[in-house]
Amino acid sequence: MSGSNMKDVMNRFRDVVDTPYEKLKLWKEANGKKVVGCSPMQFPEELVHAAGMLPVVLQETDEAITTGFSYIYPFYCGITRNIIDIAVKGQLSFFDGLVYADICIQNRNAACTLKQVMPASYVEYVQLPTSLTRAGVMDDTIRELERIKAKLEQLAGRKIDDTSLKQSILVFNRNRLRLRQLHELRRANPGLLSYRDLQVIVKSSMLMPKEEHTELLEGLVTQLEKMKPSSLEGKRLFLSGHLCQSLKPDILDLIEGVGGIIVDDDLYTGYRYYAVDVAVDGSPIQALAKRYLEKSLPVPTRSYLPARWEKYLVERAKDSRAQGVVVLVAKYCEPHLFSYPFVKEALEIAGVPHIMLETEHEVVSLEGVRTRLQAFVEMLN
Ligand code: SF4
To answer: Which residues of 219-240 are buried (b: 16+ CB within 10 A; e: fewer)?
Structure first.
């Protein structure tokens, strides 16, 4: 793959990410396949894929919230208000179904509201266990996945057998493997690829057919492996937060603009999306349940006491030799605000400097944020 081909691949990914719903609508018309939107974070997209439909992870758009104000509380987080707003405006009507897996109260309420504002659409709420230590949790997870599998079979008009589900798991594992390779390449040499481009690549994986994305990604990884990275001057930063939604590019520009180099992250539109594979031996439904219960990385939307999120964050930040941690909290994100005091304390005890910044869906002046970030980056050793 030549330099210009790399540019073409990045442009292809960017094109999908910039206007996701328009592109998906066109894709559906061209391919005649059903498209199912999955709420971010915990729904196993492999189930939708195995039914012959296209799974995509719902994304926040930049659109100003207007009509949606009448349908949801103003103190709900940006992604929830935005998705309700664009649903009310009819922009999600092309989806054949929406599946919402429980991660928080706002996400749960979003599923109820979507059922009301999109009465002609199939909207399913998926109750995966949130407390992972209680008895019977594996049986409950498998039962719920079997229930949703039957619903997806109805929607697709075909059975999901073990062979097709295993095949889908392999397709997703292959994409995750390439994303991990890319992540490690960049972690070793951040000058190879901007963090902004890494975000584009991960988000496009959530929106494109995995097979097509993996093919393009494999060419990109091969090319990057051969490239000599440009050296970067700056302070090494670990990015945490934004539990389920992607970052706006302006905040990334700001971090890099004040001399920060993002070397690693624990974002959903980052490492968390591809860190862990699903096993391919044994029962595939059980393997999906095991990934959710036993292998997923710590995150504060689930209570799993043996694997505390703050402890994990300190270890990851130290591992990546970060000089500081930037914690990005989406405004009104309750799980994150509940957990932040523990994160703050753990980072302070470990001697890892950090800064907490609140982000909003609405466009706000970033001048105050710039000043705080600049001061933070300057004082890092
Ligand atoms: S996890 Fe936070 S940002 Fe995501 S839907 Fe829930 S409240 Fe909103």
So the answer is: ebbeebeeeeeeeeebbbbbbb
Give the separation between CA 162 and CA 345, rounded to whole angstroms: 46
The residue nearest atom 3 of ligand 1, judged by CA position, is: 333
Q: Is 297 helix (H, G, I), strand (E, B) or coil?
A: coil
pLDDT tens by residue, 140-150: 999 999 999 99
Q: Is the CB of 57 under 6 A from ligand 1?
A: no
> Is residue 267 in contact with ligand 1, taking CB distance under 6 Å?
no
User: CA-to-CA distance for 37 and 45, rounded, in angstroms?
Assistant: 9
pTM greater than the 0.90 cutoff: yes
Q: Is 333 left (phi over 0), alpha (psi -120 to 50) or beta?
A: beta
> CA of 54: how far to CAs of 10, 57, 97, 316, 323, in Å?
22, 10, 10, 33, 40
Mutational pocket test of ligand 1: of 333, 337, 338, 361, the residue with most ligand atoms within 8 Å of the beta carbon? 333
C-beta of 339 in contact with ligand 1 (< 6 A): no
Least confident of 19-33, 240-254, 292-306: 292-306
Q: What residues does each domain of the chain span?
A: 3-162
Q: What is the 3-state secondary structure (H, E, C) of 298-321?
A: CCCCCECCCCCHHHHHHHHHHHCC
Quick one: which of 72, 70, 90 has its CA closest to 81?
72
What does the pLDDT look like over 15-66, one tens digit per residue?
A: 999 999 999 999 999 999 999 999 999 999 999 999 999 999 999 999 999 9
Contact criterion met (CB below 8 Å) for 125 and 102: yes
Nearest to 85 by CA among 94, 96, 73: 73
Q: Is 72 in the pocket of ligand 1 (CB under 6 A)?
A: no
Pair of tokens at residue 166: 């295993």
Q: Euclidean distance between the first and final Cα of the chain, in Å?
A: 39
* Positive/negative CA dihedral, 40, 183, 50, 285: negative
Distance CA 359, CA 331 (A): 6
The CATH number of the domain covering residues in 3-162: 3.40.50.11890
